[in-house]
Structures are given as C-alpha cells and as structure tokens.
Design goal:
Elements lengths: L4 H5 L2 H24 L9 H24 L4 H25 L2
Helix pairs in contact: 2-3, 2-4, 3-4
Amino acid sequence: MTMSFSTFIKKPSAFLPIVMSLAALATVGIYVALHGPAPQADEGAAAHIWQLLMAAQIPVMAYFALRWLWKAPKPVLLILAIQAAAIVAALAPVYLLGF
C-alpha cells in the first residue's frame, strides 16, 4: 500500500497546524477589522491568542515530520511545505502592519 498526499492530509498532525495558522490569520484580520491597524500600547487578548496558536503548532509539526517523513518523504514534505506557507501567511500581516 502506497501512502499518498490524501492519506497524510487526513491525519490531525498534518491538518491541525494549517488550521491553527488560518485561525491565527483570522484573529489578526478580525482584530484589524474591529480596532484598525494602529498598534496598541499593550498586547491584548488577540495578540496572546495569535501567539498561542503560532507556538502550539510547532510541536505538532515536529511530531508529524518525525512520525511520517521516513515512510513517505515526498507527500510529507509537500504537507510540511503547505504548513510552512500557512505560517508565513499568518506572520505576514503582523510583520507588514508592524504589530
């Protein structure tokens, strides 16, 4: 049995980091929509939620890579690349808006 991309993307350790990055991106988007792009003097709940979402996905990604990379490198590397792209997408507005 060959393990394909569709087999791996269904695993929680594969899709949860992507979902967490998208949730972090949504947190920034909602914050900017409600409060505007001006940085605040103190970090609020949105900043802490964003930080937790971003930090919590690192061990999940590490587990996924350590668990599956040796079995099927090509699809797993593709999923890791998608996870990394989702992280960059969540980091971009924070960097661009200077938060």
